[in-house]
Amino acid sequence: MKKKLIFLLFLLLITKDLYPQHCGSLVLTTPSSVNANQLWPLQLSWKGLASEGDMVLDVQVPDHFTLLSKPTMALSDSGNAFLMILSSPFTPAKEYTIKVTLEDESEFTNCLTDSVCFQILPVPRAEALLTETQGDSLSFYLTNTGNVTLKYRSAMILPGEHLKSTVGRSQLVKQQLLLKVQSLYGWDTTITLFSKTKTYPSVISVTPQSMGAPWVRWDYQATVGNTFSSLGRIAAVQPKYSLNLQLWNTRIRGQGKILSDWGSFSAGKAVVQAHNLERPYKSSFINTSLNLHSFAAILKMLQDSQLLGIAWNNGTHSHQARLHRTQGLVRLGLKSSYAKGANNINLQLIDQSGQLHYQRKKDKHFLAISAAYIADAQQSKSPVKSYLRAHSSGQRGPISWSAQSSLFESTTGPWNHFHLLQTDVQLRRWMCSFQTTLTQAENATEKYLFKTNYTSQRWTAQSSIERRVSLFQNAQYLAQYNLYYRPSRLFLQAGYKQNLSTESWSIQTSGSFQAPGFSMGWQGSLLQRGSHRTPRFVGGVQIGRKVSTGTVRLLLQNTRRGSLAWSGELHKSSRLKELKGRCVDQNNTPIAGVVLSIQGKKVQSSTNGDFEFQELKGEDAHIDIQASSLPFATSPKEGFSVHRALVKRSQKTVLVFKQSHGITGQLIVAYSSPAELRSGIVFQQYQLLLYHDSGEQFNAQILPDGRFTVGGLPCGKYRGVIQPLPQGFSYENIDFEVSSGGLKKLSICFNQLVQNIPFQTL
Question: What is the rounded distance in angstroms from the CA atom of residue 110 to the CA atom of residue 112?
Fold first, then answer.
């Protein structure tokens, strides 16, 4: 036994000498998160490394990362060192791991290993460049210069890639093109591109502003079902007089008014009020006011009451003293108002009754408080006895609110109260609303409503849940869902509503379509009242058509009911003449973007070459063509001033343009480096040399925005050369051919050469 112990001890001593023992450690320290295209240090700290020779450092970095410095490690059992790491501009945003191994070069290697994790932060970024303006369309490059995938409309753009797109001029807002770019990280931005070329509509339509205010407006609707009914209105409104008439079947009522410097006079039959403390009622009336500097005398006569007063107004203050005579009783009334800044106060006293109202509106905040006391002698004509009301609304950031409270005494009962509170929260495309209503009257009720909205460019989704509780009814729960779709001329809606307590439900759908001179709308509902009833359908369709004097609408319903409506207006000056036309070349190909003017009105030919002028005067029209709006090497066949006779009220014409030989194009730049490391390209320091097959040479000067044009070129094949050669950039061969009567369009791209960062050893 002793011999075995001695042998084991001897073996242990030999092993200790042959294999040195150590308990060393290696620790890596680096920031927990870094950005793409960033240089940062990685610190190494080690101790307890028993080494017989120089140490060897092995660093394993993932793709998208470059090790810029790798120090030479001298013999040392402990120490510190730094590594410099560079991330590429388009490093995807996620977690990465770097592994480091430190070992010696002796025969029996000792090594220390450690790894560190870090996060590349998402950096959404985009740039755009307007490349071409042609007719009523714009072309641009949209480049993803960040490290996350971007979304423009329905297209996805990967980091470092670009998207070429074309949009119509109709999307320009004050010569600006707004590009909305989004990412999956909740980031969105709007890039603004400027179009130097001023744009005009292709059609100048007649508008109420251009024709002056109408002197007559009317609306009339006749409905046929189980019974016949009609409803109409006609109004004549001018600066000095007005006339309004309303029709209900065979009954007509209305009023007329005359204005002048000395005052006003109005008379008629309508819904009126003797003063604000009485409920409105129908009555014949005569109102007269006489202006005397800052004072005015007032006379108002109704069927059962009269008013005589005098008013004073200086802009900030206004006061009235009035005598009211009703049923043989004469009462004194006072009315006063004061306004300064955002504050407004109104006070009204009639005999023993009074009303006070205070209002303040500043920015997005509103406050109103009103109170009234109605004497017993006047309660027969008042809707309430007395009341106290308050209303407040406002907005701060994404949160908006509205609150109302009323305490009132009805003419038939005790004091009652009503309270309403609504809060809305807007979070980007989401909108959340909560509303609660409490009413304490003859039947106390409570209502709680929660609603959410999600809106995209054309879609809106809405859902809500509501709880209702009343004194004589159990709690009711109602759920509702709606979906809206709004393209340019179309509107669609679909909804579902269900009472979870009674099993009643309904499905609704509606829509409308707008076209020049025509409209159509429809609406339908499938209703289920209770679980034992058969669902029924209610729906209708409406068709509208513009006519010379307005719009005619026909409404048909499946309940055997229909109506015909007519609305319109008349102007003092009727619509004059119109001229429609088209811009084409010798081959009858449309030419877009041609700016034309007649009698001070300007239009621009559309994509199809169409244009239209309306409300032209006289018997002749001189069409002036803007030369700068024409495509290169294009000129009007009849000259830049064209005469057309306006014989008929509406007529058509064709403007023909001829083309010469030439080329037009633009230089663009495709960068490979990040935006902060780019140096701008000065286009005007370069020129384009064109070499014909015959050896003849042509020069093209490049404008600051990269555009160039060359006219008068002979037909044949050409090779282009850019001089001087841009440093750090390359371009593909420029080979093209010019044919007879043709115009060649070129697009030359400067591609930035990839710059490799050399490996450094410290």
Answer: 7
Report the C-alpha gap between 199 and 704 in whole angstroms: 22
Residue ranges, comma separated, of all CATH 2.60.40.10 domains in the chain are 2-120
Sheet containing strand 610-616, edge to edge, reads: 610-616, 577-585, 650-659, 634-636
Phi-psi region of 342 (alpha: psi -120 to 50; beta: other; left: phi over 0): alpha
* Three-state secondary-structure class, residue 531: coil
CATH class held by domain 577-659: mainly beta
Question: Using only C-alpha atoms, what is the Rg of the chain?
Answer: 41
Q: Are 410 and 387 in contact (CB under 8 A)?
A: no
pTM of structure: 0.49
Amino acid at 555: L
Q: Are 748 and 665 in contact (CB under 8 A)?
A: yes
Residue 375 carries which DSSP code?
-
> Tens digits of per-residue pLDDT, 288-340?
999 887 788 989 888 888 888 888 887 778 888 888 888 778 888 898 998 88
Helix (H) or strand (E) holding 15: helix 2-18
DSSP notation for 287-340: EEEEEETTEEEEEEE-SSEEEEEEEEE-SSEEEEEEEEEETTEEEEEEEEEEEE
Distance CA 138, CA 168 (A): 6
Which residues contact residue 329 at a Cβ distance below 8 angstroms, ignoring those fewer than 6 apart? none
Asked if residues 601 and 674 have their Cβ atoms less than 8 Å apart, the reply is no
Residue among 46, 188, 151 at smallest CA distance from 104: 46
CATH no., domain 2-120: 2.60.40.10
The answer to whether 579 and 612 are in contact (CB under 8 A) is yes
Total residues found in the chain within this entry: 762
Distance CA 729, CA 670 (A): 9
Contacts of 421 by beta carbon, 8 Å cutoff, 6+ apart: 401, 402, 403, 404, 435, 436
Tokens of 733: 């061969």
Token pair 């770097």 is at which residue?
98
Residue 266, φ and ψ in degrees, nearest 5: -140, 150
pLDDT in tens, 442-482: 678 889 999 999 988 788 999 999 998 887 778 889 999 99
Q: Residue 128's CB: how many other CB atoms inside 10 A?
A: 19
SS3 627: helix
Q: Residue 477's CB: how many other CB atoms inside 10 A?
A: 13
Residue pair 42/66 in contact by the 8 Å Cβ criterion:
no
Inter-residue contact 585 to 633 (CB < 8 Å): no
Tell me where in the chain the CATH 2.60.40.1120 domain(s) lie.
577-659, 662-752
CATH 2.60.40.1120 correct for 662-752: yes
Decide if 702 contacts 683 (C-beta within 8 A): yes
Task: Read off the pLDDT of residues 128-184 as tens digits, 9 standing for 90 and up.
Answer: 877 766 555 677 888 888 888 888 888 888 887 888 888 876 677 767 778 888 887
State the Cα–Cα distance between residues 343 and 350, nearest whole angstrom: 24
Furthest C-alpha separation in the chain = 141
Which long-range CB contacts under 8 A does 300-306 form with residues at least 24 apart?
A: 302/272, 302/274, 305/274
